[in-house]
Specification:
Elements lengths: L6 E6 L4 H4 L2 H9 L3 E6 L13 H16 L3 E4 L23 H15 L3 E4 L4 H4 L1 H17 L5 E5 L3 H11 L16 H6 L6 E4 L4 H8 L3 H5 L3 H8 L2 H7 L2 E8 L19
Parallel strand pairs: 1-2, 1-4, 2-3, 4-5
Antiparallel strand pairs: 5-7, 6-7
Helix pairs in contact: 3-9, 4-6
Length: 272
């Protein structure tokens, strides 16, 4: 009897999210024989197919990282990134300014093609609060509701909530946290206030080296990153193993039952 290889689809806003936010997790499942593919909302199709074009470089960096993580496919939805705060005349080419149903439809088409057994996306507060991340979270939820196959599961990343709340307080000093995004329609404070608790904790310590290799594909992004991220990426492997030894997730579908224990492997039913 032939057993179909299970498939995991990771849906994120930008090239580098799959590595910096979920790299060890994706590498773990790819290394265990799961088919892992990533759908990325940005960037647009590059105007030039050479290193002078930022979109081209960003896409090439994702291909490089995907190879390092062992991913078997990359899908670009073809949007542009958006700034953190409101801007005048934001066009629908920006993922955070496009109609949510449109973004969800693009994700849904990838789901229809792959028929994933599990889908992972960003948190409802977008990791550190980026509007693109938040929009991609809700677009993935909408797409999953309409395009999921029977038995499929939906997860989002779950960062430590004390750190998420601290980041919100720091962001509030310089950005309108009740009105983020190009249209000012994203309430980050509300998203953090209603953030769900983790329901899964996956051991990923054996795949941190893969994450570090993938992160090197984003040297340009790291060079322009805030100092804490630079220090983390430049730290020894043993430090990174401490930071990324486990990946926390929240299962959004099927809903977690009262009293249900933390999942330790989202593909446990396919192992052994």
């Amino acid at each position: 009897m032939t057993t179909m290889t299970p498939t995991l689809l990771a849906v994120f806003a930008h090239p580098d999210d799959e590595t910096f936010l979920a790299g060890p997790l994706l590498a773990r499942y790819a290394g265990q024989g799961i088919r892992v593919e990533v759908a990325c909302a940005t960037p647009l199709e590059p105007a030039l197919s050479d290193r002078s074009d930022w979109d081209y470089r960003h896409r090439q960096a994702l291909f490089c990282a995907a190879e390092a993580l062992g991913l078997q496919g990359v899908h670009f939805l073809g949007y542009d990134g958006a700034p953190m705060g409101p801007i005048p005349n934001a066009g629908q080419r920006m993922v955070a300014a496009a109609p949510l149903s449109q973004v969800a439809g693009a994700i849904g088409r990838v789901m229809d093609d792959l028929q994933p057994d599990a889908v992972i996306t960003d948190s409802p507060y977008g990791a550190y609060g980026h509007p693109d991340h938040i929009v991609v979270h809700w677009a993935t939820v909408e797409a999953f509701q309409k395009h999921k196959k029977a038995g499929a599961r939906l997860y989002c990343l779950a960062l430590p909530l004390p750190l998420v709340r601290l980041n919100l307080r720091l962001m509030a000093l310089r950005l309108p946290v009740h009105g983020l995004g190009p249209h000012g329609h994203i309430d980050l404070a509300a998203a953090v206030k209603t953030a769900p608790e983790k329901t899964a904790l996956v051991d990923t310590r054996g795949y941190v080296r893969c994450r570090r290799t993938a992160a090197r594909c984003y040297a340009e992004e790291i060079a322009g990153a805030p100092l804490p991220l630079k220090l983390l990426e430049w730290s020894p492997l043993w430090v990174q193993r401490l930071v990324f030894r486990r990946t926390a997730l929240t299962r959004l579908y099927p809903p977690v039952r009262p009293g249900e224990q933390l999942e330790r492997d989202i593909f446990a039913s396919h192992s052994g």
